[in-house]
Write a structure and sequence with these properties.
Aconitase/3IPM_dehydase_swvl; single chain; 7 strands
Length: 166
């Protein structure tokens, strides 16, 4: 697992260049361009389970799904930031990407530190220093586990329909 560290005001154009908005819609089309203008090595080097640490206002800018779809599709486990833009936060929930606000953990990180994340307990360990954040609601974890809000809702509807038919 690798930790990717970025600063404040990382906007959606930095996460996914706007010039591809109308030509890339599937994860396969989005992935090669994720963070292209911010960190050209990211798309080639990111691995399943990696974590992004960022400053304030992560995901500000225009409302587009590609940045979140891309981060989720390349395997980012979570984004831990000092704060998030509201629309980006909602989009992340919809796609099942975990976002955690924990300014103290972000500020404690130095290049090369290990970061361990326990979402169920609401804990982040940065270089063996423990930081807590509000535990994620079970619904948010269930949406993540289902692969996003659409899949979660479909599963709930199937379950409900199965109970009526049973």
């Amino acid at each position: 697992m690798k930790v990717w560290r970025y600063g404040d005001n990382i906007n959606t154009d930095m996460l996914f260049p706007g010039k591809y908005t109308y030509t890339c819609s599937t994860p396969e089309e989005i992935n090669p361009h994720i963070l292209e203008d911010l960190d050209p090595s990211f798309a080639k080097e990111v691995s399943e389970g990696d974590i992004i640490l960022a400053g304030k206002n992560f995901g500000c800018g225009s409302s587009r799904e590609q940045p979140v779809v891309g981060l989720k599709a390349v395997g980012v486990r979570a984004v831990i930031a000092e704060s998030f833009a509201r629309i980006f936060y909602r989009s992340a929930i919809n796609q099942g990407l975990i976002l955690i606000e924990c300014p103290r953990a972000v500020r404690a990180y130095s290049e090369g530190d290990t970061v361990e994340l326990n979402m169920e307990k609401g804990e982040i360990a940065v270089a063996e220093k423990l930081f807590s954040f509000p535990k994620l609601p079970p619904e948010i974890l269930a949406i993540r586990d289902a692969g996003g809000l659409v899949a979660y809702t479909r599963a709930k509807l199937r379950k409900k329909k199965g109970k009526k038919g049973g």
